[in-house]
């Protein structure tokens, strides 16, 4: 398994990310070979090596830090935005495109944020390096910088992505947060990722919030039984029922609850998410499902016991996710405005 995961781009990334300090315990748990993603034309520091925009990563990091110091919730917002982009048609910034039927209008993408930050970063970058830095790369780099500020490792982001031309709500196949671990794994495998990626990337739920409507089934009608999810700890069930009534009154907004109360409004990146899974204190159903798969439960135990194992695996899985379905070379374009293709840009630039 370990050798398989290190082939191709995985080997290069692992050397950069872990400096040869691997994850032997985690990798040894997984009996089947991990998926090796197709080789891409992405490279480290693409814009510097090609003398297109030498300091673009510095510009982006500065903008992200300025925003993060005022609103730390930008970290989970960027994580969700990147996931919503890469898992649909690939990391092509199609989630950023406006339009009456674009991806961002899909039911699964209600509540997405961080668009304004991406707009601001793009404006700064265009002023310094017009027409050369893609929105897809900006989104990947900004997410890396935001999670690093929250406590994750500053993993290397390979760059050279280009932006897609289309965005359709009909193409959004993001699954429900109440699916089983088997369905979640099948979905990840359909994108070219594996069980370690699944268990690792769900750890992003160590911070952020969710609307009550996504957990009402667990609280009141699990699998249409008319009863709560039996895997949820009773004290957590009592607490969430106070925050999430079965029905909201007319005009009342759907309440938000923290995915990890231990992180709460501090939005800190930690392995406490996995400890909560082990204690049956997960908020989302898919998170609690990690206990029911042999591999996922073992990885969960490993990450709960060792923060560094989780951090290193998170760095690699984020890089793997960031290589899904990328456009490079002459594919796609470099948008001047992340919300519009160049052809449809109302400002003509």
TrEMBL record:
Gene for this chain: LOC104587005
Name the UniProt record assigns to this protein: Peroxidase
Keyword rRNA-binding: no
Binding site for Ca(2+) 1: 85, 88, 90, 92, 94, 103
Residues annotated as binding Ca(2+) 2: 206
Gene Ontology molecular function: heme binding; lactoperoxidase activity; metal ion binding; peroxidase activity
Disulfide bonds listed in the record: 53-129, 86-91, 135-338, 212-244
Protein species of origin: Nelumbo nucifera (Sacred lotus)
Any Pfam family matching the protein: peroxidase
